[in-house]
Design goal:
The chain is an all-alpha fold. The chain has one domain. Helix content is 77%, strand content 0%. It is a multi-pass membrane protein.
């Protein structure tokens, strides 16, 4: 029989705030597709299981002000941990946005008014990245990281001033750079297509390049994307494995 006293309930509440802030930042839970009550129940279930499996010592709270301060610390820790993981998916999102813009498929967002202001390929790349992340055991890694974070940083012990801001700046730069590298095959194909169209327009001015250019860019871009998709998947898998190890080191040593 499990007995929960006041300190244990407060500890579960603090863990819940940490998990909820983390879940809110992760793309496949933080999007508007996921209702708020689902996030709350999901975070509460994870917090309760982490409290029992992680063998967390209940914290003793002596005042309401101390409780509010500890709650703020937990929210900040969950936010930074989720932001660290979100940069991985933002890199994949940037790759999809760049590919959509340079293949002429960026205008498709006007046909989806109920969707957020994003391109179809960006949504596809995010779903593909989420699928690869889950297939590599990303959910288990995240759960293990949350448990380890409670071992190294019990509820209410996080110091936001101990974080190194240069780490997040470096990750932000690497995220954008990796997204552009993933989209590089389509970028090169789009550049060569534009050069060929410019040469054709120079030597054969009778051809309406504006009428031919957009369909040709879409055909070339999608063809190159389909041919390079297996290679992009291998690159994403390799990058995700290294990033998940970095995530575990970050969340367990913050």
């Amino acid at each position: 029989m499990i007995l929960l006293d006041t300190n244990a309930l407060i500890s579960i509440l603090l863990i819940f705030l940490r998990v909820f802030a983390f879940v809110f930042m992760v793309p496949f839970f933080g999007t508007f597709f996921m209702p708020n009550f689902v996030r709350i129940y999901f975070s509460l279930a994870i917090a309760f299981s982490v409290f029992l499996w992680g063998d967390v010592e209940p914290v003793a709270v002596t005042s309401t002000l101390q409780l509010l301060g500890m709650a703020l610390q937990e929210v900040l820790f969950g936010f930074f941990a989720g932001f660290f993981l979100r940069l991985l998916f933002d890199a994949i999102f940037v790759a999809g946005e760049v590919i959509a813009i340079h293949t002429g498929l960026g205008f498709l967002m006007m046909f989806l008014p109920q969707q957020p202001q994003t391109t179809v390929l960006a949504g596809f790349s995010t779903l593909m990245g989420s699928t690869l992340f889950l297939s590599l055991g990303g959910a288990e890694v995240v759960y293990t990281g949350l448990v380890r974070s409670l071992e190294s940083l019990p509820p209410g012990s996080f110091d936001p001033y101990a974080l190194n801001g240069k780490v997040f700046l470096s990750l932000f730069y690497e995220s954008f750079s990796f997204g552009v590298k993933v989209a590089l095959p389509v970028l090169i194909a789009s550049l060569l297509t534009n050069i060929i169209l410019a040469v054709v327009n120079r030597f054969i001015p009778q051809i309406n390049v504006f009428m031919v250019g957009l369909p040709l860019q879409i055909i070339v871009g999608l063809t190159v994307l389909m041919l390079s998709l297996p290679l992009i998947g291998l690159v994403l898998v390799s990058h995700m494995r290294e990033y998940m190890l970095d995530f575990l080191r970050f969340i367990a040593s913050s």
